[in-house]
Structure formats: C-alpha cells, structure tokens
C-alpha cells in the first residue's frame, strides 16, 4: 500500500503539470493575446477545466502523508532551517488545499473564457506564489534535507512545457501552418528554459561541494536511475529540439504530434527520476508510478476529446 501511494505521487507530479500548465498559458494569453492562444484554445480550455479532477486525484496523497514524507512520519526529520512548524501534516494539507482550490477556480474561469486582463494578472501573481511553495512541498520535501532555490522555477516552466506538448499531441484543427510554427517556437523556448534551469541547478549544487546536495544527485545515479535521466533527456529534449530546428518540420502538424509525445515522455521520465529514487522499494514504486501515469494520461486524453465540443466556439461560448 505504501509503495502504491508513493508511485501515485510520482505519477501525479508528472500528470498534474498538464492542467496546471494549461491554465497558466490561458492566463498568459489573457494578458498578451496572440494567434497562438486562439489556435491552442480548443485543447487548453478543456484541459484547464480538468483542475477539479486534479484536486480530487490529490486525495490519496493527502490521506497517506506518513507513508510518503519522512517529516510526516516523524517530525524530527524536518530540517532545522524549516522546522516542524512549516513541515507538518496540517499546514502541508492547508497549503495544498488552498493551491488546488485556487487553481481549480481559476481553471474553470479561464476555460469558460471569462476574466479580463486584470484577473489574468492577479491570477498569475498568485500562481507564482503558490507554485513556489507547492513544488517544494510535493516533490522536494520527500527528501527534506535537500533544498534548491531554482527548483520551483524549473518545475513551473516544465508544467508549461507539458501543456504545450499536450496541445501539440492533440493538434487542434485550428492549428494551420503559421500557428503550428508559433507552437513550435513556444516549445523550443520552454524546452530550452527547462533544460537550462535543470543544468544550472546541477552545476551550482555539484560544484558547491555540499554533502547533502551531492548525496541527492548521487542517489539518482544508483540502481540504473541515471539511465532514466538519459532517456528523459534524449526523448524529451534532444530529439524534439532536433526536429523543431527545421522550419518546415516545425510547421507540420504530424511532426508536432510526435514532438508533443516525445516531450511528454521526457517530462514524465524526469519527474519519475526526481521522486522515485527517494523510496526504498524503487522498482515497485517505479512500476506503480508508470502504470498510474498511463491511466491518468489515457483518462485526460479521453476527457479532453469528449469535452472539446463544449469549448469549440471559443471564449465566452461554453455551453
């Protein structure tokens, strides 16, 4: 049972980025406008509307905190610089509940095409605050001795990358050649941002020669987990980047579908690499996480395609 909920956390950390990233992209488009948001809206809006489902999917994690997080099982595991006043089950659940409720409400608003630029600006500001806490809570606090000031930023950008990749995978009919090129450009930018932050975090931590940081990375090279990271980089970064460099391929919907699938695979492998090595029975947790992730992915694709007609008329016409 413990390994099942640990696997669920790893899968949830990967999958939840798709609806959260979608609502962030809709908020950004609410401020900036642009043809890319209009083209991707038929996918982004029904995906953002799945945020209440993401909140519901968090329930098993909230009910089994002691099986996942060492500080929840024993307050002595909370690092001194944070202390049990912050890392305790009640406060953790309060923060997670607040974030999921806010994201669910914002997701439903933007999915319906409501809210103006002021709403989008305030919601993005609130999202920035929430994700900076939640990324650490959900993932880094599995091993509370490791800290990284850049982790939340990388986590947030990877969520946007996941949403763009999901939109590319489903490739709405409104994605003509020009808009496909826009999506390809956005994928390149977010992909580079994700890789850059991850690489710089590693370089700073490794060459800082701090035992706790080195141990965190070394644990993720044991038991073959280094190959999980290599696979994530090749599938989720190297191959998509190579395909997107050529303009004619970047504007091809079939190529974008392939790129979207590769990026989503890379993000999933990366999130599994972040979470699973923290547990004892790594093989079982990885297997259960992979199975859970496949289930969530299939459910998401099915729900988005089923509800897409409700959002087909564009903002303000959900029925």
Structure description:
The chain crosses the membrane at residues 12-32, 53-72, 92-111, 118-140, 146-171, 183-205, 225-243, 255-273, 285-304. Keywords: Membrane, Transmembrane, Transmembrane helix. This protein has helices at residues 2-15, 17-32, 35-48, 51-57, 59-63, 65-68, 70-73, 89-111, 117-138, 151-170, 177-207, 211-219, 225-245, 247-250, 253-275, 282-307. With 319 residues, it is mainly alpha-helical. It has 16 helices and no strands.
Structural class per helix/strand content?
mainly alpha
Mean pLDDT: 88
Please report the total strand number as a whole number.
Answer: 0
List unreliable stretches of 5+ residues: none
Strand content: under 5%
Count the helices. How many? 16
Distance between the termini: 41 Å
Q: CATH class, anyone?
A: Mainly Alpha
Largest sheet: none
**Secondary-structure element string:** HHHHHHHHHHHHHHHH
Rg estimate, integer Å = 19 Å
What key attributes describe this structure?
about 325 residues, membrane, about 0% strand, 16 helices, Formate dehydrogenase/DMSO reductase fold, transmembrane
Topology:
Layout: H1 2-15, H2 17-32, H3 35-48, H4 51-57, H5 59-63, H6 65-68, H7 70-73, H8 89-111, H9 117-138, H10 151-170, H11 177-207, H12 211-219, H13 225-245, H14 247-250, H15 253-275, H16 282-307
Summed up:
The chain has about 325 residues and is mostly helical.
């Amino acid at each position: 049972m413990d390994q099942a909920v640990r696997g669920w956390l790893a899968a949830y950390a990967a999958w939840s980025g798709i609806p959260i990233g979608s609502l962030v992209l809709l908020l950004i488009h609410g401020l900036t406008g642009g043809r890319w948001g209009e083209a991707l809206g038929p996918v982004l809006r029904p995906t953002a509307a799945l945020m209440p489902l993401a909140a519901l999917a968090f329930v098993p994690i909230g009910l089994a905190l002691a099986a996942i997080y060492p500080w929840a099982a024993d307050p002595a595991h909370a690092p001194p610089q944070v202390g049990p006043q912050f890392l305790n089950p009640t406060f953790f659940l309060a923060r997670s509940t607040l974030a999921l409720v806010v994201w669910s409400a914002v997701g439903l608003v933007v999915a319906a095409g409501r809210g103006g630029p002021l709403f989008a600006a305030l919601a993005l500001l609130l999202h920035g605050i929430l994700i900076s806490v939640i990324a650490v809570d959900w993932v880094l606090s599995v091993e509370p001795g490791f800290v990284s000031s850049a982790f939340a930023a990388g986590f947030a950008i990877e969520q946007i990358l996941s949403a763009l990749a999901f939109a590319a995978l489903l490739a709405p009919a409104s994605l003509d050649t020009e808009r496909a090129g826009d999506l390809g450009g956005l994928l390149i930018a977010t992909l580079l941002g994700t890789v850059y932050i991850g690489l710089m975090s590693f370089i700073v931590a490794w060459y800082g020669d701090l035992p706790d940081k080195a141990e965190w990375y070394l644990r993720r090279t044991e038991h073959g987990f280094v190959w999980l990271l290599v696979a994530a980089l090749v599938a989720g970064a190297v191959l998509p980047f190579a395909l997107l460099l050529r303009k004619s391929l970047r504007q091809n919907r079939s190529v974008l579908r392939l790129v979207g699938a590769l990026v989503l695979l890379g993000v999933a492998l990366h999130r599994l690499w972040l979470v699973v090595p923290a547990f004892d029975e790594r093989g079982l947790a990885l297997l259960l996480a992979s199975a859970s992730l496949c289930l969530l992915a299939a459910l998401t694709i099915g729900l988005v395609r089923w509800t897409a007609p409700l959002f087909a008329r564009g903002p303000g016409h959900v029925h």
